[in-house]
Amino acid sequence: MDEKIYIITGANSGIGKAAAIQIAQQGWRVIMACRNLQRGEKARREVQEISGSDKVELMIVDMALQASIREFSAVFLAKYNRLDGLIQNAAIFDITQKQRVETGEGIERVWATNHIGPVLLTELLWEALKNSAQGRVITIASKGLLAKPFLKVDIHDPEFKSRPFSVQNAYYQSKLAQIIYTLWLAEKGKGENITANCIRVPAIPVDVEQKYAGVPEFMKKLYALKTKSAISAEQMAEIYTYLVTAKEVENMTGMYFDEKAKPVKLPRYAQQAQEIEKVMRLTMGYIK
Ligand SMILES: NC(=O)c1ccc[n+]([C@@H]2O[C@H](COP(=O)([O-])OP(=O)(O)OC[C@H]3O[C@@H](n4cnc5c(N)ncnc54)[C@H](OP(=O)(O)O)[C@@H]3O)[C@@H](O)[C@H]2O)c1
Q1: What's 57's DSSP letter?
Q2: Which end of the chain is more exposed for a tag (fewer CB within 10 A), N or C?
Q3: What is the distance in A from the centroid of ligand 1 to the CA of 92?
Q4: Cα separation, 93 vs 142, whole angstroms
Q5: What is the CA(93)–ligand 1 centre distance, in A?
Q6: What is the mean pLDDT of the chain?
Q7: CATH architecture of the domain with range 5-284
């Protein structure tokens, strides 16, 4: 049996870490792509211990920075010439963020991390995905988009340079852009034996005390209420794992899945060819 190789970005916590455990438990090699060495190494040890696998590696990447993504890809490609699955899980959504922030490369941080970074990473690893028997890319959107049926990517100002910044608007715009990107990628992958699908993640409990220490009490209560009947990160990770490893979904591409691995309707805007073209022209303009 050929070894399969998977990369999971943001694998040091939450759903990404749970998916790393599950994929390692299946015996496959897992590259945990994390931005922080200490957090990453701590998580890698946990994943290794829980899964009982010795095929769990940490590689450092800051998905907000193109230079870091290029370095990560070079490190990965120096070691492996093949990639079976790329799970674009890392994202930021800091509900305490009030002001617009730019990365060291001068791009608004949410747009850079949640959308531009994943696009660049896939581009750099495309040949490796092609070299596997069947490469799969999984992107992550949010069920919260259901509450924003008229949202569009602001083609003229995706970075909130001349409109008021809201972290919610920046986050949902970046997730909508990821859906559009997935559909574009699915077309690109046809004939190359690479599939691309997007998962719609619902509210998953996070450790608010630890993650958002300064958040007002009422917001913590609101979040606890919102996630009361939520599924766990482990349950959500099962869908990631299923979509990248299961034989029965090997031919599925350009689809949008919910937390039960059920195909769901894509936002109408995201399916329009001329909108996909506009968003992807804008996106590629960011890739240096
Ligand atoms: N939790 C929810 O309710 C929910 C709802 C809808 C969608 N989602 C989506 O589900 C995915 C996983 O979220 P989660 O709930 O598991 O949250 P999480 O525990 O906060 O995981 C996010 C991961 O992304 C990493 N990350 C953030 N910025 C990064 C960067 N610049 N470079 C590299 N890694 C970076 C984080 O690393 P650090 O530890 O270093 O920060 C963390 O490991 C995300 O795409 C999220 O948008 C989550």
Answers
A1: E
A2: N
A3: 6
A4: 11
A5: 8
A6: 95
A7: 3-Layer(aba) Sandwich (3.40)
Task: Examine the pLDDT at 209 and tell me if it is beyond 80.
Answer: no
Cβ(45) – ligand 1 distance below 6 Å: no
Q: 21: buried, middle or exposed (CB in 10 Å: 19+, 13-18, 0-12)?
A: buried
Ligand 1 near 26 CB (within 6 A)? no
Spatial distance between the Cα atoms of 266 and 273, rounded to a whole number of angstroms? 13
Q: Look at residue 49 in the predicted model and tell me its pLDDT.
A: 98
What is the best residue among 7, 9, 13 to mutate for testing ligand 1's pocket, by most ligand atoms within 8 Å of CB?
13
What is the whole-number distance in angstroms between the Cα of residue 9 and the centre of ligand 1?
9
Q: Which token pair is 226?
A: 């919102």
Beta carbon of 53 within 6 Å of any ligand 1 atom: no
Handedness of CA 31, 168, 253, 67 (dihedral sign): negative
Query: The pTM is what?
Result: 0.97
Report which ligand 1 atom has the smallest distance to the Cα of 62: 32
Quick one: the chain helix, strand, coil %, rounded to 5? 50, 15, 40
Two structure tokens written together for 224: 């606890």
Summarize pLDDT for 241-268 with one digit per residue, the tens: 999 999 999 999 999 999 999 999 999 9
